[in-house]
Amino acid sequence: MTRLRAVALLSLGLSACGGELDVATSPPPATVAGLPIIPTAGGPTLRRARVALVSYAEAPARAAEALLKGLSGTRWLAALAEYGVEDVQLVATRIVPGEAPWGVSTDEVRALVADTRAALGLTDELVFVVYPKKT
What we know:
This protein has 135 residues and is of the alpha/beta class. The protein is 32% helix and 16% strand. It has 4 helices and 3 strands, in the order H-E-H-H-E-H-E. The protein is globular, with a radius of gyration of 15 Å.
C-alpha cells in the first residue's frame, strides 16, 4: 500500500521509486494551501523516492528526466512533504533500442521492468516506463 501511495503521488507529475526505505515518523502538516488532503492509515512513508526511467525514444526520456530533475525545491515537492516524501531522485535512464510496440500486455510491461532492473543493476527503485502515444 505504501508503494501504491508513492506511485500515485509521483504519477501526478510523471510515472518510479524505491531505494532504502527512510521512514518518516510523522508527516508535517500541509504546506501548500488548496491541495487535497489524502488521509494516511498510519503506515510508513517513502521519504526519498529513487526513480528509474525507461523509454523507447530519447525525446520522451529527456523530457521525463527534465521533469524529475526540476522537482527539487518546487511547491509540488513541498506539498508531498505532507505525506513524508521529501525528495525525488532520478537514478537511471534506459533508452530501449528499436521501435515501441503498438500495444503491450501487463506481462510485457513486467518483463520490460525486470529486464531494466537487471540491465541497470537496480534493486527496489520504482521504474517508470514512458510509452509513446501510439502504444
